[in-house]
């Protein structure tokens, strides 16, 4: 039971960034926080058990050096923007994967055409230059195309010291409606440079 109270309290703290930061700065009245958790979460346990869980969590907060190193990696990131892009959301089928396995048949790499493939469990999204929209769309049967968007932009964030990531090697690719692209770029750029 004690372990589950600890885990519950730690999860509560993890989901509230302001409480987590204040605990890290040691500016929280732990007794009042414990009373708040008890009443707001309607826990059936003692105040002392919650206080104990908070104190144990406080001892396990990540060191400032780790936070600093993560922030320094983000500050070194390179942010770029690409406009005049299009996207297709395709069913994830053998036919689609075979077609995408030969991207040289879909576009001119010598002409520096761009194509990005984002693979999910049920669908694939391909993002490419607008000028190639009709050509690439015609390569797939209509029943395989779930969604199309002729006007998207792409923000790429390249991290200097990351070996691999979930989306694409060492970068994140964000697909954004073109009319919201500049605002999104400014937000991400300022995040990386702050």
Describe what this molecule looks like in 3D.
Helices cover 43% and strands 24% of the residues. With 194 residues, the chain is an alpha+beta fold. It contains 8 helices and 5 strands. The protein starts with a helix and ends with a helix. It has a 5-stranded antiparallel sheet. Residues 63-67 have low confidence and may be disordered. The chain folds into 2 domains: 2-61; 75-193, VC0802-like (2-Layer Sandwich), CATH 3.30.2130.10.
What's this, in brief?
The chain has 194 residues and is an alpha+beta fold.
Overall body shape: elongated
For the record, the count of structural domains works out to 2
- CATH names the topology of the largest domain as VC0802-like
The percent range for strand residues is 15-25%
Helix content percent band: 40-55%
Residue windows where pLDDT falls under 50 for at least 5 positions: 63-67
Major β-sheet annotation = 5 strands, antiparallel
Strand order in the sheet with the most strands? 2-3-1-4-5
Give the N-terminus to C-terminus distance in angstroms.
43 Å
**Could you spell the SSE succession in H and E letters?**
HHHHHEHEEHEEH
SSE layout:
Blueprint: H1 2-14, H2 17-25, H3 30-41, H4 47-59, H5 64-75, E1 78-91, H6 94-100, E2 115-119, E3 123-129, H7 133-137, E4 145-158, E5 171-177, H8 181-193
Antiparallel strand pairs: 1-3, 1-4, 2-3, 4-5
Helix pairs in contact: 1-4, 3-4
